[in-house]
Specification:
Elements: H1 11-22, H2 35-46, H3 54-69, H4 75-88
Helix pairs in contact: 1-2, 3-4
Length: 90
């Protein structure tokens, strides 16, 4: 699965930085400084579910249901985590 929070030296951010330079932009200027990292996070979030198998998500939701039934998770916590997992399926 993709890393939603890239580490320093992130190759995607470096590529976006290079693209900005190729387009004639200065990636160090005020309005663009955070753009490479922002684009990298967005791309990673958008592709986060590509390696996820539906049966794995269903198994996790079942486990969450068990935790809810035991009182470990509230209904709201269960619903939030379930929505997060289902989002990965697209």
């Amino acid at each position: 699965m993709a890393r939603p929070n890239p580490k320093p030296g992130d190759p995607i951010a470096e590529l976006v930085d290079s693209l900005l330079v190729e387009l004639g932009e200065n990636p160090r200027r005020q309005g663009l400084r955070a753009t490479p990292e922002r684009v990298s996070r967005a791309l990673r979030e958008l592709t986060d579910g590509y390696g996820v198998r539906p049966e794995d998500v269903i198994a996790l939701i079942d486990k969450l249901g068990e935790l809810k039934a035991k009182g470990v998770l509230t209904e709201d916590e269960f619903a939030a985590k379930k929505a997060e997992l289902l989002k990965k399926l697209g």
